[in-house]
Structures are given as structure tokens and as C-alpha cells.
Amino acid sequence: MKKSKRRQIQVQQDPDEMPRQEQDEPVEAEAEGTENADEQVTIRSGGRKARKKAKMEERKAAKSFDSEDASLDETIRDLPQPLEEMHARRKAMPELMREKPQDVFADEIEDETGDEVAGGDQPLESPDHQDEANDSEPQEPEENDEENKPEKSPRKRKRDEEAAYFSRESDLKKRTALRYARSRRKAARVLHTPNINRTGVPRKSHFFRNSFLTVLSLGVIVLIGAFFYFDMANWQSLDVDRITAAAQTGRMYDNAGELITVIKGVENRVVIPLEEIPEDIQNVFLAAEDLRFYKHHGIDFVRLFGAVVANVKEGGFAQGASTITMQLIRQSHLSTQKTIARKLEEVYLAFMLEQSMSKDDILAMYLNYIYFGNGAYGLQTAAQTYFGVDAKDLSLTQAAALASSIKAPSYYSPTASESNNRSRRRYILDTMLEQKMISQDEHDNAAKAELVLVKKPAEDLPYGWFVDAVLVEAESILGVSSDQVLSGGYTIDTTLSRTHQETLEKQFKTDVFPAKASDGTAVQGAAACVNVKTGEVLAVVGGREYTVRRGLNRATQLRRQPGSSLKPLVVFAPAIDRFGYMTASVLKDEPINFNGYKPRNSSYTYYGNVSIRSAITSSLNVSTVSLFNDIGVAAGREYLEKVGIPLDARDASLSLALGSMTYGVSPVQLAAAYSPFANGGKFYSPHFVRKITDPTGRVVYQNRDSGTRVIKETTSFLMTSLLQSVTSSGTGAKLSGAGTPVAGKTGTVNMTGGGNRDIWMAAYNSEISTAFWMGFDESDSKHKMQSWVSGGDNTAAMARNYFKALYQNRSKPQFASAPKGIVALEIDKQAIKWRGEAMLAVDVTPKAYRYTEYFTSDNRPTRKSDVWTPPRSANKFTVGHSDQGYPQLMIQPSDTAIYRVQRDTEGESFILTELYGSAGETLYYTDTSARAGIVYTYRVIPVHAELLNNGVLLEGVQSVQVAQARISGGQSIWDSVLDFFGGGKTAEVEQDVVESMTENQTSIFWNNAP
What we know:
The chain has 35 helices and 29 strands. By secondary structure, it is an alpha+beta fold. It is elongated and about 180 Å long.
């Protein structure tokens, strides 16, 4: 077993009687007293259980020592009493403690059996020696055991050996250690020696060490006090983003790349790199604020000491000694309050900033961050504000003037006080000369140069409605607040067209609005113009007058019901595109009850069979709702969602066909929704922003909308054809005076109780799509438009004026020609009315009833019109007599036609009259010109009425009757007698005539009758 490093305790007699060499040997006894000795024993005995057992044995051993106090007292009495000896023993005590463990009072130490140990100098035999004595005969190890046992690691083998050793020696060692510690405490009380760790060893004096510890303690106390007094716990940590992300002024450009306006918040700042600032200009600011900027580490102790001296003399804060770094920290992190706490925090943060950034970066941030007065932050903005130049083009005089402003803009800026600025400017130039930053000539020239300031232009709000819309969209794109957009230094390329915007704004200065309300409230308006090929919003006007930034923009924020202007979007476009309807498809326009919903036409007039073209041209409500009912509400909603019209869940009834919505649309949304009709069927989301670039030049947003096809190209063409009819001869006919091809649709929203709330005009050509709205912001019984004011009036007039002014000196864009798959056919208009079907015109179709209609090649009419065939003969034709005896004709028509009545007699033939009638009617005519005694032949000839009105005579089969007048007083006496008795020649003749009429059904004037 490996021997333990722990040395055995040796027993000695009086320390003074020990040999010199033994006193000089280091004693390695337990100098830590009872507790430390026990701790070492328990640690080496291994484990918590062993430590607990050792403590219990310690308490038992302590009780056994009480009986030995008498012998200990005798030992103490034997100690030398003279003071010199006591002092010598005090000096010897530490050396004795460093020697091998031995009991200084060995004669009182007993072994485990109670026997005294013989010989004070004789060390106790170690257990190893005792084991060797007892085991005189060596034992042979068992080979099998050694071979089977796994080899232990040195560390584990050592731990096992120590545990075995102390298990045998623990009792003796503990008793020895306790007796040794107890003896030293007794000796310490008698000798009155200092007690170090309860050992009784005298303390050695260390003056310098004690002084250092005292000063250190005082310093710690002062720091702790300062920590609480200056509230250091609440000091800020350095945040460089507060400087680098400072508010910056951005730029907004139109679609031609020209500057519209600057974008700024509270701070007007344009950040530029240090490389764009000439070195001479940099030196101006170093001379003005911090000559030793490149020599210190954020705190200039030379200036600081001078400032302290000056402040002591002044009895206040006369000087600050702030470096450029400290100024930057103060303006970005701290307040301007002059307190010691704030100054210390400023120093701390300045030092931290210097550790994290280079000098050039700090100077660049300073020149871009600092305030120069007059609303200008940063050198670039200050140069433009005061002198109208960029920072790189500043003269030495101008730079010195700007540097002068930093100290106190309200006192030293060029606009605040020219004399104060000149004085400060001269000081800066003198400092630069002293520091050899400039030559004498440069100094003199700059000192006497005249400072010319630019006049600050009046605050202008150019294109305010459009700029506001751009800012709102930018906030949404970037996901930031309005303040962050204004102060973020972004460059925004917009879709604004100055020509379109300025022309649109002029329309709102003209008198085209409806009359004011009775209380003087004016009717409001809004309009939008969108590029149909890109979705770019070219112009918007959000009200009749722009007065405040970010106010209500009706062009983008308005949500009003669109009325009939929604019909092409929700009904006709999906019907044609998805369900095979054509522009000539026939609808029923008559009162219908749709499960309780009873729409009506605005004029309360109904037209029977009408084509889709007629229904949309005249804006007929009933026929439109009927078609919407056929295609289904879901189909209309689906198309509206495709073209960006917002819907509510409640917008799911047939009334949606007439523009009845929960919230409604804005002019921008409506204008964009009409664009697919003009561009071949694609929808582009309306937008104001093309591109956004951050202050570093990185593009953070780029619009890449390539459009979404929502209808077929053929449908787009057919819809434009329909809506051109509206602007040429329909409700939007005022647009026919636009001087350029335009298509569109009107919209009018009625109010319960009479009057109109909203009027609309959506109009477009092949380049732009527009929407115009007029109405009161808050509609009620006192704020409404008259019932005769409709979308075809004021809004149509404004749209006409806009297109006319816009294309006055420009080429007039034409709508696209018919795409492949479209055919043009001549349709008989009367066939739609009479037959309820679109039929091809025939040769006899009058020109007035022919019109060209467009169809797809796979969905076209093939039947020819049959409404121009000769009308059939009268269903019944008889001749009687009136009360006066004149011939009275009774005619029952078979068709709708004009029935000519012709009378023939010997020597004459002429038309008596023309009667217009239809099947089911009975026509009467009395021939009062007939003379008695003459036999007349009456012929009823059906003639095609429409053709006759257009100069074409088309007759049908005639009917013939022969009759004679029976006029009283015109007969002979004999004839009267015969008549009285019911006989005679006359009666016979009349009967013959009637019979012959029924046999003769062919007109002698119509050779082609069947």
C-alpha cells in the first residue's frame, strides 16, 4: 500500500528545550484549529458518511478532554513568565507550527489504551510499520486472485490506500489533533497573544498592505455611493442604431424620373458619406468643435481639466469641454440638461462609442446627425437649406458659417444673427490658420467673403392627393409606420404622370358640380386615372380642395355604392365570358318578382324583348337583374374579386347587379376594374409605387405585377363594343363630345324618399381608365342631390372635359381592332323585338333596322329575319251599314300591319284610308262618301308597316267586299216599298255581292300573292 502524504504527529516537550535544527524544520501540523483539522481528517476519510461519523467522534473526544484540564494548567504554569521569554515564544510559535506535526505537550498525550508515550522525541510508529512488525512472515499472494482482479487506475488505488490507512488511524489522529488545538487555545488565553483563526499565533504587522487595503476599501465605498448617487443603474447602454438609423429625408420621383417632393418628418436630414465631404470642410468642423478629435479616445482630458478650472472660477457650468464624440452621444442618447450625472453618463457612452467605431465613422455620423438650425439636420441638408448647394460644393466661408451654427443655432445661425455668425466664423477661421489647416491667403479670402443666403421658398404641397396615397402604400409595402417612412430616408419612384395629374386637378376647379345643399354644404368629388396596361395610377384627386397633409383622400379611401357602373363588371362580363351570351342576346324587360325582390327601371317604362346592348345602353334594371339571376350571384362575385372590388359576405343578393353593396368601392378600385375591357382581358392591381430604395442605395421593393387574365380577349372586345354604345347614344352620351374614342358606364344611387346620394362615371380608352364620383360626405335628407341629377350629367360632363383636355394636342388613341375569333354580322333589329331572337338582316330589311353586331365565330346567329315578309290577309272582313245607311267596314287583322282600304267603282279607284292594327283587334271604317245607287268594290290590303315607314311597299293578300249605300231620301219610292217588304232587286244584288266576296280573295293589284 502506498504511504499517505499526510505526516505523522510527533510528540515534543517544551518548545524552548527543542534542538535548534528541529525548531527550524517546518512543522506541518493542523494550524487551522479544531475545525480545520477535523475538515482535513473527514475529507481524507472519504465521503459524507465518513465526515458525519468523524464529527460524532469529535464530540465524544471533546468530552473526554475535560478531565485533563488539570494537567494542561500545570503545563501552562511551567511556561516562562518573563516578558522577553513570552515574546520569544510568540516568535517561535509560527516556526513550530510549520514543523512536522508534534504535540508540544507530549507528556499529556496518551495512546488509545491510556498508556503514556515513552520519549518526547520519539515519533509514533506509523501503522505501516506496525503492520510490518505484526506480519513478520510474508504471505504468498494468491495467483488466481491477482489474475482475476482487474487492474485499478492509480487514482482509485490511491483513494483505496488512503481510506484503509485512515480507517485504522482515525481515532488516534483525531484525539491528537483535538488535544493539540485545545492546548493552543489555552496558551493563547494565558499569554494574551492575538488569535488568528483561533490558533493563538501572533499576527505579523504589514503597514503597506494594510494601507492599500484601507484605500481600496474606501474606494469601493466611494464607488458604491457614486453608483447610487448618480443613478448609474439606470444609465443607458450604447445603441449605435440611434445614430445610424436617425431620421432622414427621402425623395419622391414621378414616372419620368423628376423630383416631386422631399419626404421628411420632424427632422429634415439627407445622409451622405464622408468621402463626399472635402477635407477642408471637415477641418472647419474640427477647428470649431474638437481640434484633438483624432488624438483622444472620446474624452479630451486636456480640455476637460481646463473646463473644470473655468467652471470653478465661474461657479457653474461655464464650459463643457465636449468632444465631437460626446456631442454625438448627447444629441442621440441624452438630454441637454447640465448635471454631473448626465455628464458622467455622456463620458461613459462616448468612451464606449470610441471603442466600437472608427474615428472617420464617428465624424461622418456627427456631420450627418447634428442640427444646424432652420429645420436642417446634417451637413447636406444645411448646405441646401442655407445656400442651395450640396455639401461637396461648400466654400470655406459657407462651411465656417454652418460650423458656427452648431454651438447655438438660435444664436449663431446665419438667419438668426448675421453679426454673431460672422464673429464665430472669424474665430473658426483664425483657429484653422493657427493650426496650419489653411494658408494666410485662404484665411483672408474666406474672412472677407460675402455670405449670400438663398431665400426659403414658401411651403408647397405639390400633388398632395397623390403624395399622400404614395406614403400610405409605402407604409403597407415596408410594414412600417408613417413616421418611419417620413424619416427613413427612402427614395420612392412613383407612377405619377404630371400631365394627367395637373389636367385632372383643373377639372375640379371648374363649375361642373351639382348645386350645394340648402345649408351651403358643397357637393364633394373624387377621381382617379389608371394606366390600363400596367395598373399604375397616373393621377388622383381626393376632393375639391387639398388643405392638409394626410387628410381624407376620397380617391383611395372612399367606399360608396357604385350603382349601375357595377353592371358591366358583375353581370355582363361574366355572362359573356363564361355563359356564352352575346351582345345581341335577347333579355326580357318586364316587371318580374324575384322571390320578393322587385326591381324597376328608373323611368318606370318596360320594353319587352331587348338585346344586351340595349339593356346596357339604356341602363335597364329589370333585364339586368334577370340576366344576373340566370348566371347566378356567385359568378358575379367571383369576377368582382378577380378585378379587385372588395366584397362583404352580405353582398350576395340579386341587388348586387344594380351596385347595391355593404361598403362600396373607391374611384381607384373602379377605374382599375374597368382596365381589362381596354387591354385585352388582364387585370393589374392599381399601385402608386414603382420602386423603393433605402438610404444605402439598396432596392427594398420593386413592383413586378405582370397582370392576371380575368376574361378572354374576345370578351374584352365585346365589352368595349357594348360600352361604346353607352357613351355614343346611351346614358353616357355626353362623352360623345370628348373628341376621342371613349367607352364607359354611368352609375346613380337613389335615396329612400327621393333624391340621389351618389353619381358615377367610369370611362376609358385604350390607354387610361378613369372613374369620377360626386356626392356629399354625409348624405341625409338635407344633403342629397336632386332626383334628376344622374351619373350621365355632372360626372359624365367632367369625364368628357378631362378626356377632351388631355388629348387636345395629342394623337387620339383608338381601340383595338377585332381579335381573331370575332365576326361582324348585320342583325335585324326588329327581329329582336318581334321574334325575341337575334336574326340576320335580309334584303328587304330597312336600313334603319340594320346594325352591325359582333359575335364569336363559334357562337353566332344563322337564322334570317322573317319579320319583313308580306303580312297575311285580314282574318275577317265584312261590310255592313251605319245608321245613316253608309257602308261600314269591319276588319280583324291577322298580323301587325297597316291595312289599306281601297274603293273601286266604274271610272274610279282610290285608297279611302289606312288603318294600323295587330292580331286580335277589330278595325272599323264607315265610307261616308258613298252615294246611293252605286255599287262599290271595297278592298282591304295588308301592308308591312315598318317597310312602308321606310319607303318600301310590301303588300299582303287583299280581301274584297262589294256593297251599296243605303242612304235615306236617296231612293225612289218604288225602292223604298221593296225594301219595306223585304224583297226587291236591291236585296238580291247585295246578297250576290256578299257571296262573291267570300270567293274572291286575290287582289287585282298583287300578282305575286301566294
